[in-house]
Specification:
Radius of gyration: 12 Å
Oligomer: single chain
Largest sheet: 4 strands, antiparallel
Number of helices: 3
Helix content: 40-55%
CATH class: Alpha Beta
Structural class: alpha+beta
Strand content: 25-35%
Length: about 100
């Protein structure tokens, strides 16, 4: 299975989804960016990923689906330029452990 980050977007909710540890680190960074820089609320929902052993985490906000899509796309682009810290890796490990250990 290929490592990837994707999103399922519906009215007021973005599910940031990953497939493995590497993509979970990226999902954590995108989730953090959507909360910190775009003003979304943490949806406080964590589920097993629908592909591989990844996660699905949520953010919520009162935006149109189009705005949610644009904000997610922007956050995903910006994640590439953000340094990956040990805190990102540790949070990814913790989230995966909650579901798979």
């Amino acid at each position: 299975m290929r490592s990837s980050v994707s999103a399922d977007i519906s009215k007021h909710t973005i599910w940031v989804c990953s497939t493995d540890f590497k993509s979970t680190v990226k999902a954590v960074k995108i989730h953090e960016r959507l909360i910190s820089y775009f003003g979304y609320d943490d949806g406080c929902m964590l589920e097993e990923g629908n592909r591989g052993q990844g996660i699905s985490i949520t953010v919520c906000g009162f935006s149109t689906v189009r705005e949610l899509q644009e904000d997610y796309a922007q956050a995903k682009r910006e994640e590439r330029d953000q340094e990956t810290t040990e805190q990102h890796r540790e949070k990814a490990r913790t989230l995966l452990a909650q579901l798979y250990d």
